[in-house]
TrEMBL record, chains A, B:
Signal peptide: none annotated. Its EC number is 4.2.1.20. This is tryptophan synthase. The keyword Flavoprotein does not apply. Pathway: Amino-acid biosynthesis; L-tryptophan biosynthesis; L-tryptophan from chorismate: step 5/5.
Length: 456, 456
């Protein structure tokens, strides 16, 4: 036995009391949101009809490096946090690598992912503001589950627009949301104007995340004392997810672990942004030289093949414009794509950090991702979510490189969740029927054609 | 904040090094197994064609109170143990009870239940003995999953006879087993003599656990260097599960928690037997006066309405006879029964302890069980397995009694697992279509009629 245990659990009293706001340290900030009507930077007042007041304040806070986690939210966190930082001894053995591999495991709560970290915070602030109900969208279903859990706890009614193909393919995920009292509406639906419009233009469509966002926003704006909440992309979501990075850093410091490489999957960017936040702050200040790698699916390659441009967050083109790496809000990944990470754009913070070369990105194909996931499940016991297995894939690739070079690198990756509601994808992999898809340049051009013309 | 944290995680170095063998302390032992051919007590040699050698030794060990957990098994345990002992602060608040409620949560591993504790041990011993393959049966699928995980780790081929109705209703549970490399055969099947016989006699049957056991045993006996492994009922399984009780007791001692009531669900009895083992040892020695309650479904009430008699462990009547509380090996619970805990019999140890009044038992109806499960999920975040929610139901009932009486009782229950693969049952509860079923005396008589005539 080495002195590093399999699982490092911080005691509850050492749980972080502050979220980490990396924007306070960034040398250049991401540009502000642009109001789609005025084409001027959004003010807090512009955002107020859609979002909770305190979340807007956090969204626009570029100066405070540490923002206190309210005691009530920490109380919620105590139900499932701190999450373990795990030394992947068995994976190291399997790969026969001199590298040390660690993963921060966010899948030990019922939502099955890191999403609960922001859901708990957002619903707390909604309750504090005295809101009567909330709306949101969900794709793979992790965010919808997390939010319905938090809404059940704080007793706030929730409507979840769930991408129709996902609601059909994952009836059990839908059932979990309903068990927690959330109302699930498959999207596009006839309950909103934008939904009816999309249905008219694309009869039989399975929907998309961007379309579900449009419907959720429309409903929130039209409903008295209701607000919309989002599970990724926005700065305040990354802020809440920084609890992952804070805990990871505390555990590393406590046990003398010095990661040389931190790897996370990126869809909207909240898990990655949260995991790396405090380490990134140190890197910007010149205190470390960690290599940060965001991993995305080859079928939805916003960082590696997208454009850094102002774009809408949704298909309906109703949200403020965010400068981000994007494939265009009209881009819809191939239906053979199994896991999440199918968002056309990317967090503004992550986009800026990528553009300014504080991090790199890689795109991986899904068959290789499930190969890694299966090997990991068999040796480490945990069945990963397909999303998380993207990061795992690159961690394994890097550990195998170390085997070749003999380097004893310390690799850390985020295992964001479990795959218990993704078994249809595993079945397709097990049956050998899973295929890969890489969009052609022409495919991407179609998406780019939906980018707004913005002259700033 | 009180001084008891939400979740007590023992550090890995404080993990138990010994399993606890309650038989060494029992004033009267359960009678030995009876060989169905000779009608004499089974010897180790009688059992050798079916079971691994070291497991037989453990099965027949009535003298050693502590049996060492091999370092290799502890190594496996470290991947997911120690499991947390949780203070259910939010449930206490919901119930507005003066009682203190704790639960030992075994659902944080991918098998989703406590079953992995015995699977890891059994497969380790199989590997040590140099066996080429293993067979088993699974009902709800938790044991099959756990065993396939352990078999993947130790690299031993596994065939799982899965109750046909369960394999059909839970394709994703089947997929998890297959992801770990287990071969799933829906039972009854045409791959065994007993399966063909049952199919001929009951065309279209959905199968039963007792029938799947018969098929798994037949295959193991007919296959070179293969053995059968069982996930509950037997003494060595309860022994392995005592790691739950050992950890619980260590955590209680460390934090000065003195449970006055320990509650566990009982199907075959392994979780309950494991959870209570070391506390029961102390009770037998007069060192505590804890009330132990086993909770079973009203639709399969082996303790509360069964007979204490010698019976077969399987429908095919091929196993040794065990003296146990049983409904008769021909008893099949109503198809509307949603959760596990559908075994006709009960662990010999638990049966003896129950018969000798060291514990009590209660039967609960499933609609009340799912009501408790849903309330718990909403306030404590964890979506329980239906099985586990039986224990939860009684813990809640007892806490509500304390509210009436004002008693500040310390109640501890076993939350054996998560319900992520039981969403069809939750859907039926959510939709209001779940019904209860209590067998009539006439129904039970049909089962009792299948009891063997044994004159001892």
């Amino acid at each position: 036995m080495t002195s590093i245990p399999y699982k490092i659990y911080l005691p509850e009293e050492e749980m972080p009391k502050y979220w980490y706001n990396v924007k306070a340290v960034m040398k250049e900030l991401p540009p502000p949101f642009i109001h789609p009507g005025t084409m001027k930077p959004c003010t807090a007042d512009d955002l107020r009809p859609i979002f909770c007041d305190e979340l807007i304040e956090q969204e626009l806070n570029n100066t405070d490096e540490y923002i206190e986690i309210p005691e009530e939210v920490r109380e919620y966190y105590r139900m499932y946090r701190p999450s373990p930082l795990v030394r992947a001894y068995n994976l190291e053995k399997l790969l026969d690598t001199p590298a040390e591999i660690y993963f921060k495991f966010e899948g030990t709560n019922t939502s099955g992912s890191h999403k609960l970290n922001s859901a708990a915070a957002q619903v707390y602030y909604a309750k504090k503001q005295g809101l009567s109900s909330l709306t949101t969208e969900t794709g793979a279903g992790q965010w919808g589950t997390a939010l319905s859990m938090a809404c059940a706890f704080y007793n706030i009614p929730l409507t979840v627009y769930m991408v129709k193909v996902s609601a059909e393919q994952k009836p059990y995920r839908k059932a979990v949301i309903e068990t927690y009292g959330g109302k699930v509406v498959p999207s596009p639906s006839d309950t909103t104007e934008i939904g009816r419009k999309i249905l008219a233009e694309n009869p039989g469509t399975g929907g998309s995340l961007g379309c579900a966002i449009s419907e959720a926003i429309e409903t929130s704006v039209k409903t008295e004392n209701c607000r919309y909440v989002l599970g990724s992309v926005l700065d305040h979501v990354l802020l809440h997810q920084s609890v992952i990075g804070e805990e990871t850093k505390l555990a590393c410091d406590k046990y003398g672990i010095e990661p040389e490489m931190i790897i996370g999957c990126v869809g909207g960017g909240s898990n990655f942004g949260g995991l790396v936040a405090p380490f990134m702050g140190d890197k910007i200040r010149g205190k470390n030289n960690i290599e940060f790698i965001g991993v995305e699916p080859a079928s939805c390659p916003s960082l590696t093949r997208g454009k850094y441009a102002f774009d809408f967050g949704d298909t309906g083109k109703t949200t403020p414009l965010i400068k981000m790496y994007t494939l265009g809000s009209g881009f819809i990944p191939s239906p053979n794509h199994a896991g999440g990470l199918r968002y056309h754009g990317m967090s503004g913070i992550v986009s800026k950090l990528y553009n300014d070369r504080y991090m790199t990105a890689r795109a991986v194909e899904q068959s290789k991702v499930f190969e890694a996931a299966t090997a990991f499940a068999r040796c480490e016991g945990i069945l990963p979510a397909p999303e998380s297995a993207h990061a795992l894939r690159v961690a394994m690739d890097e550990a195998l490189k170390c085997k070749e070079t003999g380097q004893k690198k310390t690799i850390l990756f985020g295992l964001t969740g479990t795959g218990y509601f993704d078994m249809a994808a595993y079945m397709s992999y097990n049956a050998g029927t899973m295929t890969d898809y890489i969009p052609t340049d022409a495919d991407l051009e179609k998406g780019f054609a939906t980018l707004p013309k913005v002259d700033l």
